[in-house]
Structure formats: structure tokens, C-alpha cells
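Handout, page 2. Input:
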Amino acid sequence: MKLKTYIMKEILLTQGKVAFVDDKDFEPLNAFKWYAMKRGNSQKFHASIGKNGKTVNLGLFETASQAREAYLKAKKKYHVI
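Output:
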């Protein structure tokens, strides 16, 4: 049986951590600043956005892509130009 090889890229997080993402997802995800946060045993991705000088928590997500989508949706709502 031949195993499929995946090529992943690294996105730097705070606290010296990294997140591994698919090549196709790297560019759009790397446009954001990502944070490493410890919440119990959670291995989820946290999304937040700034509004009027305060941080709005958007939630915890299973994947970085889901966190990105939540951020982009909030950006349309809170950062209207």
C-alpha cells in the first residue's frame, strides 16, 4: 500500500508555536496574526476581531479555515468602509 504524501507549510504563532496548514490554504491564512492560546486541553483555533478598541471573541473552531471564515464574516460586519 502506497501512502499519500502531504506537503504542509508553517504559520508562526505566538509563544514560539507553529500551525501546519495545507499549501493551498497558506497564503490567505498567513495574512492574519495567529495566537497560541492554552484553554484546558483544547486544540481548537480561536478567532477574534477588534471593534472600537475592544476585542470581540468570535469563538473556537475545529480548523484554521473555519476561524478565518468567522473572522472574514465579522470583518464585513464590524469594519464597514
